Amino acid sequence: MDAETILGIKPALTEYLRAFDGCMGRKSNRRHRDHYVLGQLSDLQRKSVEPIADAAGLPPRTLQEFLSMMVWDEAAMRDRLQQRVAARHASPHGIGIFDETSFVKKGRKTAGVQRQHCGAVGKRENCVVSVHLGYAVDDFHTLLDGELYLPQHTWHADRARCRQAGIPDDVVFRTKPQIALDQLRRALNNGVRFAWLTFDELYGGNLPFLRELEGWGQTYVAEVPASFWGWTRCPEIYYQAHPRDRVRQGDTRRQAKLKARDRHVGQVRNVLRHSALLRKVRWERFLVKDGTKGPMVFEAKRIPFWIRDAP
Predict the structure, then answer these.
(1) Contact 301, 283 (CB under 8 A)
(2) Of 8 and 286, more confident
(3) pLDDT at position 164 over 90
(4) Could you tell me if 112 and 148 are in contact, meaning their C-beta atoms sit under 8 angstroms apart?
């Protein structure tokens, strides 16, 4: 943005930032926040602390201390943002997106850093990973939540290391799907509603995660692993007395059993290759977006698939 554009949006930006004043603590924190945000929106060639501070007439160390040491109420800020989105951007077409962000980091002192898959470079690398919940509807999109992923063995189990990195004792290991569920729970409590959620195979391959969403009545579109087992038609179940209880009188315990024709299950990859039912369905074309090299078009077809819960 150039200076003229920033001046044009400054009243609306000021009103927006004022909504979070109560989360910032001291008045000086609010001023530094305003300078930092304006710097990030400016036409400065470099958006690091020193050029932003110079442009605002501040000592660089002051702005650096604001970013690294000053304390504000992050939970209250997150809740206020979500409540604002719920009030101003509610829609029957709202989409929630779970995804991760990774940053390559050297050394071992940065909170959560370890050698793990780094999406930013597409391979294992020394990095930190965070899980995020986004929201999109029409031409509006925003991040609603984000949390650091704390690796189990190298960080969670070493509380002394956590304290040295400033990680509170109540921040413990959770799988990424567990973090995502906590984020969804917070957003729902703050009034945000999603027509659909979408996420990649890391979440779509986690059956407890999917069952939790289904238990909440939440619809979703997910990438799932080709190794999932299941059926292309709803399996039929019958109940019989438990073998140990057949000789007992009046025992009501019954054991669920699959009918013989449904005892054979297939993997998703084999459905894609061999299903006569799927072959009968025509491909549909969907325009995803217009890219720099022309329109991005996906082709898709669908049939029902009932996932088996256990191996």
Answers:
(1) yes
(2) 286
(3) yes
(4) yes
Q: Would you state the structure tokens that stand for residue 190, as one six-digit string?
A: 């703050």
Q: What is the pLDDT of residue 42?
A: 86
- The CB density around residue 135, as the number of other CB atoms within 10 Å, is 22
176 contacts 148 by C-beta, under 8 angstroms: no
At 286, the amino acid letter reads F
Q: 241: helix, coil or strand?
A: strand
Q: How far apart are CA 67 and CA 136, in angstroms?
A: 28
Instruction: Determine whether 66 is exposed, middle or buried from the number of CB atoms within 10 Å of its CB (0-12, 13-18, 19+).
Output: buried
Query: What global pTM score does this model have?
Result: 0.85
81-111 burial, b for 16+ CB within 10 Å, e for fewer? bbebbbeebeeeebbbbbbbebeebeeeeeb
- Confidence (pLDDT) at 2: 65
DSSP lists the bridge partners of residue 132 as 99, 146
Q: Would you say residue 236 has pLDDT above 60? A: yes
Beta bridge partners of 146: 132
pLDDT band per the 50, 70, 90 thresholds, residue 60 = very high
